Amino acid sequence: MMSMTNTSLKAPHLSPAHMGLPKISMIGNRSYLVEAPGELDLPAQRRIWALARTLKDRADVLELIPGMTNLLIVLRRTAQDDDRLQAEILEIWQQTAELDLLGKTIDVPTTYGGEHAIDLPAICDYSGLPDKEVVRLHWERTYTVFAVGSAPGFGYLGGLDPRIFMPRKKVPSLRMLKGMVTIGGMQSGISVLTGPNGWNSLGFAEITMFDAKAEPPALLAPGDRVRFLPERIEL
């Protein structure tokens, strides 16, 4: 059971979020996608959190949806001056410091290897590391929940050791089980549904990530920390 306390194709080069301005794209008539510069790193995510915090009380904003180093801004109505609005967003970005969301810490007992680690051999081949080293590098890190989405309760976990970076599969596995502990690029995650999945499994955790009857229904929230505890290793 989990416990909670309050507290080329190789790995990409991580450039800091302050190096440049975000990219802003229109999505439909009244939505804007703001993408942080740099790679999927924590400083970039903190800038996204800060931007969302600054914009949340604007009268013209209907909804803010933070993603992995990006923010979807949904307006109540189409902007009268698109250029001016985008200039305002860029100005806010430059003036806003990083925001660190300090959530709860969740310990996840994990079985590494065994029948559910269907992609561990591929991760070892790609990294050039033995299975014991891949497993160690995975569980030694403390991960930060950057965003929650794509499936109910699924947390995008930043903080993966670059040495075990693993691209997502070009052809998804058709039946990845709920609870599989996975790597997708420079992120880790825990499958919340059984079904097609393009991430790479190296273990399994008995944990409920989403319960529609609970309050809140999702176990993870942005800013939470996740630690994988090697309860059993089957290599």
Shape, principal axes of CA atoms: elongated
Cα end-to-end separation: 22 Å
- Secondary structural class: alpha+beta
Low-pLDDT parts are 1-18
If helices are DSSP runs of H or I spanning 4 or more residues, what is the number of helices?
4
The radius of gyration is 19 Å
Q: Report strand %.
A: 25-35%
Number of strands: 14
Strand order of the largest sheet: 6-13-10-11-8-7-14
| Element string (H = helix, E = strand) | EEEHEEHEHHEEEEEEEE
* Average pLDDT taken over every residue: 90
Q: What can be said about the biggest beta sheet?
A: 7 strands, mixed, barrel
Residues in helices, as a percent range: 10-25%
Give the secondary structure arrangement, pairings included:
Elements: E1 3-6, E2 23-26, E3 31-35, H1 42-55, E4 61-67, E5 70-75, H2 82-95, E6 104-113, H3 120-127, H4 131-139, E7 142-148, E8 155-158, E9 173-176, E10 180-184, E11 187-190, E12 195-197, E13 200-204, E14 225-234
Parallel strand pairs: 6-14
Antiparallel strand pairs: 1-6, 2-3, 3-5, 4-5, 6-13, 7-8, 7-14, 8-11, 9-12, 10-11, 10-13
